[in-house]
Amino acid sequence: MSIISLKAIEKKFGKVTALNNVSLDIETGESFALLGPNGAGKTSIIRILLGFTKQDSGTASINGISCSDIEARRGIGYLPENLRIPPFLSGREFLKRNAELFQMTRMDADKAIDNVLEITGMKERANERTANYSKGMFQRIGLAASLLNTPKLLILDEPTNGLDPIGMREFRLILERLKVDKVTILLNSHILSEVERICSSAAIMNKGSIVVKDTIENLVRDGESLEDVFVRVVSGPALPN
Question: What CATH number has the domain spanning 1-74+199-241?
Fold first, then answer.
């Protein structure tokens, strides 16, 4: 069953076409990557899924519910590319404020916070001010916040951007654990080596269209990397969706 379904999506910002007849289905439990150069339309898809903007035409749904309906977003966890946390808050305080947005009882919030701190390896550092966190710790506490509501769909926008190799490995191991728990992951990333390790399928976009969509196994030929595929596909002539 498809958890995400986009059908013939069109989106323009003024005279700029952000999405041009985009159709995409992502199955429940899949780890899926949106790839493409800057301006390809990846962020526009994420914004439509999250209800931040609405498509001009076509349909977008999550679990069969229109993305314009708040009910579609109740089972989503989201980690934005440029997460902002007030520097005076500790990691735990930040999570408590997020739990309040989910209208959790204090008992449920405390239980959920302890759980996500354990998952992300942030339990021992949770009471420190986020101003003192490393980039990796900052991203992990952001991921912890996105997991508070036990989402079935996790949307990650450049989550490993700026992380050192150790930080990327730690983040990848957390995502591997979530995959075992059958959480559907939608990943937008330019770090193709990480995408190749984390995701099972990908769509490569260019100029508002999906150029190719397939499993990572089918996309990457013998002797190639995903980076080779990306350059070949984006540089070549556009293919039909």
Answer: 3.40.50.300
